[in-house]
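Dear colleague,

Following up on yesterday's call, I've attached the two folding results inline so they're easy to grep. Please treat them as preliminary; we haven't cross-checked anything against experimental data yet. The first protein's sequence and structure tokens come first.
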Amino acid sequence: MIVNITFFGVYQKQIKGKDKLFERWRKQKWCIANFYLWIATFFSVNIYRLIFCQLFRLEIMSVKVSRPQPFLRPLLIFGFIKFLVFNFPLLITNFLGISILEWGNQCYMTMLESTILSFLTLLLMIWEYFLKEYLIVRENIQLSMKNLENIDEHVHLKNEDEDGGKFSSFGGRKKKVNPGFDDNFFGQTSSGFLLSR
């Protein structure tokens, strides 16, 4: 609980109000943003990871930030602190219990399961630390990739237009295709080249 409350104080000082893009997202999703923060404070700091897990690509689980590393640093640090404070003493207790109890005992099996889960948690935290660059994609990178795709499509259409367009036959007549033209044809919409009337 002390670790969670400390995380809440660090969040208020180092995260809140520091990133303009995050502040815009937080104001738009103020209810869920406060829910993540309070549930992390009263239950577990690890629950705050839901804010960027991108589960089902939901907007409420896809936080937008312009600088991911300053946003993630407190969460990663307090995750390791929580492991040292809670899981490390638990591992020592489990090792002692496993060495004393016999196989088949209910406490033995519970301690064995707890030990396995603690090691898996540590492995996930190490994996998360070394791949922290990919946990949150920069919003400006996403926009840049989208702009590049639009530019590439525009150049392709322009080259087709300079070549005089393409021709296709329909009903025995040849009709010129207008690049980029979008219209309903027999009740269907196409995103490519369509026949113009």
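Below is the second protein, in the same order (sequence, then structure):
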Amino acid sequence: MSANKALVCEDQALIEFDRFCEEMDVENDESILDQEDLTAWHKEKRRIVGAIMRGNLVINESGEAEYTPRKTEGVDKLVFHDSGSGFSHLLTMDNKKKSQDVRKTQGIIAAMTKTSPAAISKLHRIDTKIILALFKLLMD
């Protein structure tokens, strides 16, 4: 099977994306966004829908995103849990210096996925783009 072959059709991927937004309380009303935010929204949405179509991203029964890294070996499936642990983790990360934003983001994503920051830091660039797209939507 070629790397570009879709396992899930685009229409179904969009339905899953909308279900994810609904279940995870992600605002997806594009009419309230200004042009800059709309451009960013479409970029992240495109990445997420593409990952669903490839089969690397599945929205589980609870509406949580389950991402199986496409290019990273040694990192298991990452589940963005709806427990709020990542959001409360923000408070513990506030003492990080501005220069440590990457580590802060990795720490929050690790808390949200109940994995280690070391595992997040190992992600290949392609996998990181998908994880950051999910992170941005959930944190907005």
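For the second protein, one point worth flagging: The chain has a mean pLDDT of 87.

Best wishes,
A.L.
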